[in-house]
């Protein structure tokens, strides 16, 4: 799921984590992705979250 740093995707990621899903947090910047990871972990302490290093801005 991309866009987990805000809006609808962030709202979906938290309940998915709560139900045991693994969420891969990808965002437009590492700082925003880390903020989202912290927010989800605060709501779901045992959440299975991954924060890969990736840049989706260029897919050529």
For the structure shown, list the relevant keywords.
2 helices; 60 residues; two-stranded parallel sheet; mainly alpha; 2 strands
Task: Describe the main β-sheet briefly.
Answer: 2 strands, parallel
* Strand residue percentage: 5-15%
How many H/I helical runs? 2
Overall tally of structural domains: 1
Residue-averaged pLDDT: 84
- What is the radius of gyration? 11 Å
Main sheet strand line-up? 1-2
Report how far the terminal alpha carbons are from each other. 20 Å
Structural class: mainly alpha
**Outline:** elongated
In helices, the fraction of residues equals 40-55%
Run of helices and strands: HEHE
What's the total number of strands? 2
Low-confidence segments, given as residue ranges, are none
């Amino acid at each position: 799921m991309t866009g987990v740093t805000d809006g609808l995707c962030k709202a979906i990621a938290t309940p998915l984590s709560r139900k045991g899903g693994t969420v891969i947090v990808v965002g437009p910047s590492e700082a925003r992705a880390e903020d989202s990871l912290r927010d989800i972990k605060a709501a779901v302490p045992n959440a299975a979250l991954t924060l890969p290093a990736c840049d989706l801005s260029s897919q050529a």
